[in-house]
Design a protein that fits this description.
256 residues; alpha+beta; Umud Fragment, subunit A; 2 domains; 8-stranded antiparallel sheet; 4-stranded antiparallel sheet
Length: 256
Amino acid sequence: MHREPKPTERDRASAAPSGPEDRSRFSRIPHRFAASMSWRRTLALGAVCAACVLLFSAFVVQPFLIPSGSMETTLRIGDRVLVNKLAYRFGSVPRRGDVVVFDGTGSFMQEAPQENPVTGLLHGAAASLGLAEPAETDFVKRVVGVGGDRVVCCDKRGRVEVNGRPVDEDYLFAGDVPSRVPFDIVVPDGSLWMMGDHRSRSRDSRDHLGEPGGGMVPVDRVIGRADWIGWPLGRLGSLPGTGAFDGVPAPGATHG
């Protein structure tokens, strides 16, 4: 009679393990190590990307959240403008009509407010990405007078005059007058006279006439020029230019 061969001890020993209890615990170490390395690579890549974005924001283009209505309707509350930090880096200077972001310490604010260093660092990082309101010392306004200009308000028709030439400010908020506060100033060299487009809601150079600095903003306090609107998507595009100052003569020049 034919008999089936019985498995030997050798056969059983050479058979592949069928249950998890037969696996060596050391066989799972490479998998855990690979998963750990994967997370480390992801975190490292995220840190590098964040550093690149922050560096780009610090030196090239910075998103800036508009916190108030002082520049309506050119800029609205909640807009994110993209501030060109290279606009004045290579010999160019702010011109009349430019919309700029600047540090108002010493002009619009005499001292920077005290804050917790850690909170300030986190808020600064978020603000540099346009995710939080800017620092209390940062402002966005329009350049109305540059060094040497005489800026006067107002002529018989209620217009601001720059170097004796009335300016038709087509960017003003509908229904606003150029200024309800009369002034007659000469902008020192290396300084700027700043005003908001929504004059009745803007605290600008006019409000600091009696303070140290007389409301003048040093050119070296300018952070950059607001060139584009990056958010919301419905307003995406470059800021409209203005020809309001095209006919203004140079400081000290006469006009016909």
